[in-house]
Amino acid sequence: MNRFFALSRTSHGVLDIAAPAFCALLWLGGLPQWPTVMLSLFTAFAAYTAIYALNDLVGMKFDQQKFAGSGINPGYSVEASEQRYPLAQNLLSINSGFAWMATWFALALFGSYLLNPIIVFILVAAVVLEIVYCLLLKVTYLRVIVSGVVKTCGPIAAVFVVDPHPSPYLLLLLFIWLFLWEIGGQNIPADWNDTVEDRRVNAKTVPLCFGPERAGLLVMTALALTVIASGFLPLVSPANLGWVYIFANVLIGYVFLLRPAFQLYKFKMGRNAAKLFDNASYYPLSQLLLISIFLVAKKVFGA
To answer: Whose CA is closest to 9, among 17, 120, 160?
Structure first.
């Protein structure tokens, strides 16, 4: 099973589930009914498991070319398994990998339909965009935009779980916040850590196309805007979160995003990119813990 979990990058996928959980709590201003919570968690796990596996299935040949010379690079602490890219390492067959992905995708579709049929369309759109993202590896660095859209799909779907008719303007605010976080904290740092391997296959990524100086500046800009956007997130929630929440929110952004981003911009080393990726991966979880603490405190103390 470890090889299948490595295919789906389960350790990272579990962290990713924090983003839709946070958005649902923020939007609702409280905790949904427990049956909804349990079904949502299962559906989110199935969806992330399927889409991460799909990434490796579509990109298998590229991955084999990338790591043909020096083997699989060390990666990040959230994806540190020696069995990373099991298809590229011939640790899994394509048929078994496809069966794993298809099973979880079917479960995700079923769960999505039960939660809200609109989510089915969001899930299918995420799958299509993920395939497009993988196929654009040697075509254009603009694939980073596709990545940003894909990463917003889960959290946006979570909003439709708790609100069948959400405000498009508030959805746009969530979209911008998540989109910028993905570009600055996940996609570009991940490509930065893989520059040696990507150069081997003539990949078109932001670090390779623009160089470390401009890539670092783009990371800093995207994450600074992420933190600024996070300060407006209380507008999404019916709960009166207040200035203490906003301050704590911005502080989290500094610790998990801005500080490691500045280190990357300053030193421009692959290990700094990996550290930023790791820190940014915990950013949604920290947001989930923060909103949970505030909502519980308001319920207990009536503040």
So the answer is: 17
The two three-digit tokens of residue 103, written as one number: 């099973």
Decide: 223 and 184 in contact? Cβ < 8 Å: yes
Query: Using one digit for the tens of pLDDT, what is the confidence trace for 85-103?
Result: 888 888 899 999 999 999 9
DSSP classification of residue 82: T
Nearest Cα neighbor of 277 from 170, 182, 205 is 182
- At 303 the three-state DSSP class reads coil
pLDDT tens digits, one per residue of 22-76: 999 999 999 999 999 999 999 999 999 999 999 999 999 888 887 766 666 666 6
The pLDDT value given to residue 1: 82
Find out whether 265 and 220 touch, Cβ atoms under 8 Å.
Answer: yes
**Residue 164: Cβ-neighbour burial (10 angstroms; 0-12, 13-18, 19+):** exposed
Overall pTM surpassing 0.85 (yes/no)? yes
pLDDT of residue 267: 95
Range 2-301 has CATH code 1.10.3470: no
Report the b/e string of 59-71 with b at 16+ CB within 10 A: bbebbebbbeeee
First-to-last C-alpha distance (Å) of the chain = 46
Burial class (CB within 10 angstroms; exposed 0-12, middle 13-18, buried 19+) of 203: buried
Please give the sequence-ordered ranges of beta strands (E in DSSP) within the chain, or none if there are none.
Answer: none
Q: Return the pLDDT at 285.
A: 98
What secondary structure does DSSP assign to 13-64, as a single string?
A: HHHHTHHHHHHHHHHHTSPPPHHHHHHHHHHHHHHHHHHHHHHHHHTHHHHH
